[in-house]
Amino acid sequence: LDGVVASGLAESNKLDVTITESEMKTEEKGTEKESTRESNSNILDETPDYPGEKHISIQQHLADLEKLADPREDKKQPCPLCPEEKFKACYHHKLHRHLQNLHWKVSVEFEGYRMCICHLPCHPVKSNLAGDQAFSKMGAHYHCIICSATIMRRTDMISHINRHVNKGETKTRFSTVVAPKASHEVVKESATDVQVLPNYSTPQKTDSYFNPKMKLNRQLIFCALAVLAKERKPIACLDAFGATGIMGLQWAKHLQSSVRVTINDCNENSVAMIQENCLLNKMKVKLSTREDDNDEAMGDGEENADTIEVTKMDANVIMHLRSFDFIHLDPFGTSVNYLDSAFRNVRNLGIVSLTSTDTSSLYAKAQHVALRHYGCNIVRTEYYRELAARVVVAAVTRAAARCNKGIEVLLAVALEHFVLVVVRVLRGPSPADDAAKRIRYLIHCQWCEERSFQKEGNMVEENPYQQLPCDCHGSMPGKTAVVLGPLWSGPLFNAGFLRRMLFEAMHYGLDEVQPLLKTLVCEAECTTLKHFSAPSPCEENKQEECGVYIKTPKPAAESLVPGKRKREGLIPDAGAKRSKSESSAEHPAFYYNIHRHSIKGMNMPKLNKFLTYLSKAGYRVSRTHFDPMGVRTNAPLAQFKTILMKYSTPTYAGGQAEGPVHLPEDAQAEEQLQGAGGAELLEADQSVVAEDCPPGCDAD
């Protein structure tokens, strides 16, 4: 008997149930009988599916729960899941109703087992409760079948079980047992295999996130790194937020010995998954979790050429400790918290790329958040995506200037899910001052959507509305414009760098990103020509960028823009060459949406034809990736509307027999509208309709 009691007490200690000493003395006899029942029951025995002891509230059938009730001498049975103070012993029929209504109906089911609600003193009670109030507060809780947790609410218990299922944990475990290995799915992208959790599309806070929709973003960053790898070898690159490690693995697998990849993450589960993914792709792994590592952690020897270093640190810490040539930041939300660390030790002429996914604040849906994170005042405009890109570049410029570094924007992309900015770092106070001068405020008219950057200087103007090309302030009552910013007023693209990115995308077979890069090249040069050809590796030319000479693919004859001079050889004066190239290649700021400025009652021309009309009028024009119906041009808004109105045709009523205007009369109307406004167009249309109407009809 003593052996049975000792075994029963040992088994009860495994249940993680806190029972006071007084209650243990009074319930010692009941515990002995319950332990014998547990040993005889087939349900609570150890099975291959669920090793370990389970709580008595976890059963498969209601009858099994009734068997746990111990009949007394008077044939009354107490509830096995309620203390005697809460439910007194009763006859079997009443106990059956109690177990069915109070415990079984509100249970949580998982793979054939029911986790019934338990009222035993298993859950810790608040210290300020005592007596009957304590029993009423501590009554309802559940015991998890997978772990040793006790949860009070049924909805929380269901969510708790779902989290175990998403992680692949479907077996019983306690705090002293190592958690079973989660089941992974293998996803392949750009010839790189990565293991992801089953819930990678909707992860929890402690899980690694893999977003298939960010494939375009990863390919853009890879092309930028491939261009940098052609300039100098080897380069130290850092993926500060590795998650599954897909981006760093693509760098190391395709660029091989040209890069020394470091993948960092502060989450222990993510670091373990990154190591598994490195082994899955047959890459050597070097784990480093110490914060006292320095730049000599990975030498320049050949033995580390195909080795990926995986670190478990905070992103700010590793960027403070080490120097890198290429740094990519992709945190959850904004990246402004890591900009100071990124520019602290980045090498000269290195590249910093950052992906911001806080589109709610950048796209002016949460303006107070944009003011708090970026220090910018923005409103929702027709060009809100480019406005978001310029907000991020302004924050990057200020962070670099604090470290006595300037930047040159190589690429700025704002799509539905993210804003990507890629900049080149220029060391020295002079580049920092030049970049800081490019941060200005923007004056935006809320009536006609016209916009203009404020002039340089600190002098206060009497009438700031004079800087706007429109005259809405004179014709409209009240204040018609708002001041936005501070924003980046310089160019957002570097045409030469984008062409080299396009060449690398063709070289590595990245077909998804090539259309976007072609659009970006045309947008950077503000042209509608789309003649691109993949240059051969032997055709290389040297061009100057950021004050240094770099070797680039030589463009073919058909890919040259008419009117552009072919670059041959080197130009002695690098500073003059740089200033001249920057002034000539700078594209117009912002764009206009053709639908936003359409005329009511008029059919607009096709977008490509409208671009041709603007180009014939002598303006620079191109499409933009920010808006599929956007037009980037240096034409003022008034001229934009005039040309749009000029080549728009009136929309006629369905009952009119004559149909649309004939071509000869359209040509006459266009000749009358040279340099005229909308009123003259309406008069010309009325005269055309009057000529077509038979005698006696009303021309109006």
Topology:
Blueprint: H1 2-13, H2 21-26, H3 28-40, E1 58-59, H4 62-67, H5 92-104, E2 108-110, E3 113-115, H6 132-138, E4 142-143, E5 150-151, H7 154-166, E6 185-189, E7 192-196, H8 215-231, E8 235-239, H9 246-255, E9 259-264, H10 268-280, E10 284-288, E11 307-311, H11 315-321, E12 324-329, H12 339-344, E13 346-356, H13 359-362, H14 367-374, H15 384-402, E14 405-414, E15 419-427, H16 429-436, E16 439-445, E17 451-453, H17 472-475, E18 481-488, H18 495-507, H19 514-525, E19 540-545, E20 548-553, H20 574-585, E21 592-593, E22 602-603, H21 607-616, E23 621-623, E24 630-633, H22 637-646, E25 649-650, H23 663-672, H24 678-692
Parallel strand pairs: 8-9, 8-12, 9-11, 10-11, 12-13
Antiparallel strand pairs: 1-3, 2-3, 4-5, 6-7, 13-15, 14-15, 16-17, 16-18, 19-20, 21-24, 22-25, 23-24
Helix pairs in contact: 1-3, 8-9, 8-18, 15-16, 18-19, 23-24
InterPro entries: SAM-dependent_MTases_sf (IPR029063), Trm1 (IPR002905), tRNA_met_Trm1_C (IPR042296), Znf_C2H2_type (IPR013087)
Catalytic activity: guanosine(27) in tRNA(Tyr) + 2 S-adenosyl-L-methionine = N(2)-dimethylguanosine(27) in tRNA(Tyr) + 2 S-adenosyl-L-homocysteine + 2 H(+)
Pfam family, one: TRM
User: What is the helix content?
Assistant: 25-40%
Tell me the structural class: alpha+beta
Q: What is the terminal-to-terminal distance?
A: 111 Å
Number of strands: 25
Total helical elements:
24
Based on CA atoms alone, the radius of gyration comes out at: 35 Å
Query: Which regions have little confidence, pLDDT < 50, spanning 5+ residues?
Result: 1-51, 126-137, 173-182, 293-303, 536-584, 653-700
- Major sheet size, sense and barrel closure: 8 strands, mixed
Shape: elongated
Strand residue percentage: 15-25%
**Overall residue-averaged pLDDT value:** 77
Kindly report the spatial arrangement of strands forming the biggest sheet: 10-11-9-8-12-13-15-14
